[in-house]
Amino acid sequence: MMPKSNFLRQQVFALLRESTTSAEEDLEALSQCSAHIRNRMVVEGIARDCGLTLTGFLMNDALELYYDIKRGRHGLGFIAKGWEDPGFRIGELVEIGPWEADAFKAQAAELARFCALRGIAMTLVTKNSMSAEIQMDGVIYSEGFNRVTFHKTLDSVNECVEKIHTLIPEGRHDRHSPAGYFCRRLAEASGRSH
Question: Global pTM?
């Protein structure tokens, strides 16, 4: 009986023989597939070692991978990587309601400075009359992605989210469930822009 890896390799070669793309394009696609498998294994293994659960996997034309990160039933953020990105984006999305917009504006510079000192960027991603959505994220290059850098970046993102609660204590700001449609759309757009 033929080993499964031999069967899979034969299927891949059958597809390549029928391919209308150049050899260089074929190699690029195979390289991306290989990197995707390797990156998923690394991300899933590190999350498991950290006692975290990954849910909501997504892969599409823009994203090589996307997961929501949870500890127990509590959402901690997301991890995403676009096909062309040199590393992983660990982040969280926070909604600021209209009742706290003025307080947030007054504290935005302090919050941005607090986050920047921890390697976390803060970006206004949408704003309307009902709310504003703030993305906080940090990037870890693939070569430096390991349990320590992942854990530290995730902690830093969550420190920034908690800082919003201390700077705007009377607010009713909500952490988005990263599994939501908007956060995935944001991660896709982020993957396309890099």
Answer: 0.81
